[in-house]
Amino acid sequence: MAFSFSKDRYNNVENAKFVSDRAFYAIVAAVLLFGFAVNAIEVVFFAEAISTWNPIVFFIVYFVMAVAGVSINVFSRNPVLSFIGYCMVVLPIGALLALVVPGYSMGVVRSAFLVTAILAVAFGLLAVLYPKFFYSMWKVLSLSLLVALIWSLVAMFTGSYFSSGYVWLDWIVVLIFCCYVGFDVALAYGRPKTLDNAIDSACGLYLDLVNLFLRLLIIFGNRD
Fold first, then answer.
1. Which pTM was predicted?
2. Quick one: which of 8, 86, 151, 202 could link to 31 by a disulfide (CB 3.0–4.6 Å)?
3. What percent of the chain has pLDDT over 90?
């Protein structure tokens, strides 16, 4: 039996299109793969063009599109609008990856991708086995991520972020995003199996996995 969240706003499914459990998880996987495929195309074919963009314009467009996309995805109960919001998240993040990934060797990128996949599968399975545990972690995860981000910003501005003494912080952030993967899997496991909820679940997992990959890329890149 799926874990039920009585206060979950995703339980508001009036007039929603329901799908089977198998179709729900297949849609989540397909939407995730679509996002990663778009990102791969951006990195392989558009990295050089993106690198010529004005940095200020880039980050303004990135921020506006990402925030608007997440907002549409979160608040819309229409699967078409939710998918549009998802695409608005995928495209700017892909552009960011196109700027970052080419700066690392193929070995580093491959290692970060492989470890991301292994950790995602491991924490996803744990979330299926213990959904209540991961769902109960949301306050701790939110506070931990906020503290880690503030610490990272302070370290960057003081010029000590890339010193060896802060490697442990990167691994803590990796653990936080691993738990976020488990948290979002637990949410997906307990939500009503509608088409819109499948797209929303994919968007949350996409953000978790991209952030996990980027953090591992930094760790392995520094080591390399």
1. 0.86
2. 202
3. 61
Among 39-48, 126-135, 159-168, where is mean pLDDT lowest?
Answer: 159-168
Q: How far apart are CA 97 and CA 95, in angstroms?
A: 5
195 domain residue, yes or no: yes
Give me the residues paired with residue 194 across strands. 18
Number of Cβ within a 10 Å radius of residue 59: 13
- Asked whether residue 2 is assigned to any structural domain, the reply reads no
**Does 9 map to a domain?**
no
**Are 155 and 169 a contacting pair, CB within 8 Å?**
yes
Report the distance separating Cα 145 and Cα 162, nearest Å: 19
In a domain, 3, yes or no: no
